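Changelog note: in this version the structure field was regenerated for every chain. One regenerated record is shown below for reference.
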Amino acid sequence: MNQNFAFLNSFIEISEETFLELDKITTFKRVESGTQIVKLGEVPSKVYMLISGTIRCYLSTESGKEFNKSFYLPTSFVASLTALINSKPSLFVFETLSDCKMFEIDYKKLKELCKKDQSINDLYSRVLEVVYIKYERRLVELISLDAKERYLELRKKIPNVDEIIPQYHIASYLGITAVQLSRIRKKIESY
């Protein structure tokens, strides 16, 4: 079974015909490290299915300070969802942290397919539910866990996080400084 077909079926069972319909609105891309696939203030028109590499999503302040909101690893969907749905400029930047392979999906064409094909609409709805659940979990972590606990949760989700994501990006994601993260890591390693 095609691994992309299997990934989509992990959300909801779809037929091979449905997969082929989705494939028609999809373009395979290789993207170099450091590329902004969604820029700040850009009105996005694409959804990405990441199949290799790492992407970060961050917010940039007027002073240039960056706050990492999320990291994306294979296989996952990547999009500035609120901006896409509302056809508004993105408040976030999506940047590749490594060379990536991904499928680019035209959002308007996807929405048109949702109107014509109930199974694609069901898949779209299920993906949105999964994205929302992840977002809600992240919010609960930020509110209820201290920095060490947030770091340990991140390591559970991404066991090799320290090898694939630079320390300053991890620290930003956790809402702490790189020095604080270094101290937390030393305490954990000393146990």
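Spot check on this record: The first helix runs from residue 3 to 9. The chain has a mean pLDDT of 95.
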